[in-house]
């Protein structure tokens, strides 16, 4: 892997995320219900802001790396054959944005041979810029953050992320209810990248993800790993590469046995 490409990609991603974020911030207060539409029967939304922010990001990537494959939330796959793959979610939290809830972010990830090697998440309303690179650490506004010693808890605060298509799956409902009943708080922000950023910063104790794959997934995962967290499947096997149907636990390494037990008991109905 060419590390000079990763460094240049990070520079481009930061510029693109900041410019797209500035646009989103400008549009946030001006959005009305006529400016968004439903994507499909799941109730997920898309706004003109998604498209405008995406155009900014894709333009900068194409200019700097015309031979790279890009998959973006609204435009789809450019289908170029390359070891390098960009994953772009120009507005993670569109539903929040559309109803006036100030919880949304820009997410840009670079993959090399299906492994995340660079990620940028930008939260425009707070001006928080999160960056990570493989073996390069996790930063928030330039400050390196590591999980360090695990924060003790009597009842955990857990981020729950679930795919739209499996919202009513009985196994998912059972697990979700179990987590909600056996933790201090189960958080669902409708903006997964913000939950991953919170875990990487130490503001959450864990994330439990139930079959939710998309352009916004791998940026936050890289940040959690670079902050010192672990990401496994429900059986404790380290998660590598990409998956169309991921079922994951992310947390501090020392807390993994606890959260594996929590998930196991939720799935079997204990």
UniProtKB/TrEMBL annotation:
Keywords: Hydrolase, Magnesium, Metal-binding. InterPro entries: Inositol_monophosphatase-like. GO terms for biological process: inositol metabolic process; signal transduction. The keyword Metal-binding applies. Its cofactor is Mg(2+). Mg(2+) binds at residues 73, 89, 91-92, 216. One of its GO terms (molecular function) is inositol monophosphate 1-phosphatase activity. Pfam families: Inositol_P. Signal peptide: none annotated. This is Inositol phosphatase.
């Amino acid at each position: 892997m060419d590390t000079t490409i990763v460094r240049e990609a990070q520079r481009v991603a930061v510029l693109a995320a900041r410019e797209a974020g500035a646009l989103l911030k400008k549009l946030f207060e001006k959005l009305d219900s006529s400016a968004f539409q439903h994507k499909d029967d799941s109730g997920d939304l898309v706004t003109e802001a998604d498209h405008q922010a995406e155009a900014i990001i894709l333009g900068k990537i194409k200019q700097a790396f015309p031979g790279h494959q890009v998959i973006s939330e609204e435009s789809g796959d450019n289908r170029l054959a390359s070891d390098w793959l960009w994953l772009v979610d120009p507005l993670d939290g569109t539903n929040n944005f559309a109803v006036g809830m100030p919880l949304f972010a820009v997410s840009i990830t670079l993959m090399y041979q299906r492994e995340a090697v660079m990620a940028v998440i930008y939260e425009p309303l707070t001006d928080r810029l999160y960056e990570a690179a493989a073996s390069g650490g996790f930063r928030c506004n330039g400050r390196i953050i590591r999980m360090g010693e695990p924060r003790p808890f009597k009842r955990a605060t857990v981020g729950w992320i679930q795919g739209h298509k499996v919202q009513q799956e009985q196994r998912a409902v059972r697990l979700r209810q179990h987590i909600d009943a056996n933790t201090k708080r189960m958080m669902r922000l409708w903006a997964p990248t913000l939950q991953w950023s919170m875990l990487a910063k130490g503001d959450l104790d864990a994330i439990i993800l139930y079959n939710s794959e998309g352009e916004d997934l791998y940026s936050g995962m890289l940040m959690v790993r670079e902050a010192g967290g672990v990401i496994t499947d429900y059986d404790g096997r380290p998660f590598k590469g990409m998956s169309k149907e991921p079922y994951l636990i992310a947390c501090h390494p020392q807390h993994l046995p606890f959260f594996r037990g929590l998930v196991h008991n939720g799935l079997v109905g204990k």
